[in-house]
Amino acid sequence: MMMILSRLLHSASSPSRLSVVALSTNGRLLSTGSSKVEEPSKVEEPSKVEEAETVEVPPPLTEKLLVLGGNGFVGSHICREALKRGLNVASFSRSGRPSINDPWINRVFWHQGNLFSPDLLKNALDGVTSVISCVGGFGSNSYMYKVNGTANINAIRAASEQGVKRFVYISAADCGLANYLLQGYYEGKRAAETEMMIRFPYGGVILKPGFIHGTRQVGSMKLPLGIVGAPLEMVLQNAKPLNQIPLIGPLFTPPVNVNSVARVAVRAATDPVFPPGIMDVFGILRYSQQKSA
User: Fold this and answer.
1) Do 205 and 276 form a contact (C-beta atoms < 8 A)?
2) How far is residue 98's CA from residue 92's CA, in Å, rounded to a whole number?
């Protein structure tokens, strides 16, 4: 009996056979039930990262400029100025490709149509980033409103719907009493200007020159308008106070060279920081003398 009691006491005081597992600070697995220290499974080394291939990103697409009336006096100079700046240039006009044989003609894509044909205009606007309109004309009041107003309004709306970024409209300075004599002309211009401000509040520029001089080609004949315009420009460009005189002030609006108008128009159509809004002839003269960005 004493022997059995002794064995029971000895069994109660011995450590339990249950193993308690603990995790040491160095990440090893330890077992209290065995003196053997279990090593953790070997951590695989991260796979070698291969050097990324250099992917050639194509340069930004060339700016594509559409000149409305690009075969006219002002429009042809705008086309040439744009080509000098490395732009992709297209023209949209009723007569299409001009008959002259100057080398620059072959570098312009010529669309033929009118601004009252939505489908033709939509095709011409494909891929275009900026538009310059030189469309205008004289005749009866109804005709002048249609050409200077309605035609340009159609172009402005179509360009906006096609996602064109910038639109430049060559309008005209007020001429005092002449505004009443050419009522359809000026009312059409003002209607187009209003549409511009609505459709292109941040990317629209309206240039309002007076008499535009330079060498104008009419058929095979060249008219040197600069003979009269250049001297007047030199005299009147510093006479802005006279231009503010009521009624007769517009008579002192200085003429401006066609190259100056073309230079400012192309810059306004392609420079995202060019200020939007209306620019009078004095602004055109000032910007034309600045170096291109």
Assistant:
1) yes
2) 11
CA 132 to chain centre: 12
Buried b (16+ CB within 10 A) or exposed e, 164-182: bbbbbbbbbbebbeebeeb
What is the value of pTM for the model shown? 0.75
Cβ neighbours around 201 below 10 Å, total = 10
For the four alpha carbons of 213, 214, 217 and 222, in that order, the dihedral sign comes to positive
Q: For the chain, where are the E strands, in sequence order?
A: 21-23, 29-31, 64-68, 88-93, 109-112, 130-133, 166-170, 204-208, 212-213, 215-218, 221-224, 256-257, 277-280
In angstroms, the CA 244 to CA 266 distance is 28
Q: In this predicted model, what pLDDT tens digit does every residue of 244-265 receive, in sequence order?
A: 777 777 777 888 999 999 999 9
| β-strand pairing of 204-208 with 166-170 | parallel
Contacts of 27 (CB under 8 A, 6+ apart): 40
Could you tell me if 119 and 98 are in contact, meaning their C-beta atoms sit under 8 angstroms apart?
no
Triad 50, 56, 59: Cα angle to 5°: 155
Q: How far apart are CA 45 and CA 64, in angstroms?
A: 53
Residue 252 makes CB contacts below 8 A (sequence gap 6+) with: 236, 239, 242, 243, 245
- CA distances to 48, 137, 206 from 148, rounded to whole Å, are 68, 7, 14
Q: Please, what sign has the CA dihedral across residues 13, 19, 25, 29?
A: positive
Sign of CA dihedral 148, 96, 278, 288: negative
Query: Average pLDDT, stretch 40-47?
Result: 47
Question: Angle at which helices 281-288 and 258-270 pack, to 10 degrees?
Answer: 80
* DSSP 8-state secondary structure symbol assigned to residue 15: P
Contacts of 77 (CB under 8 A, 6+ apart): 214, 258, 259, 261, 262
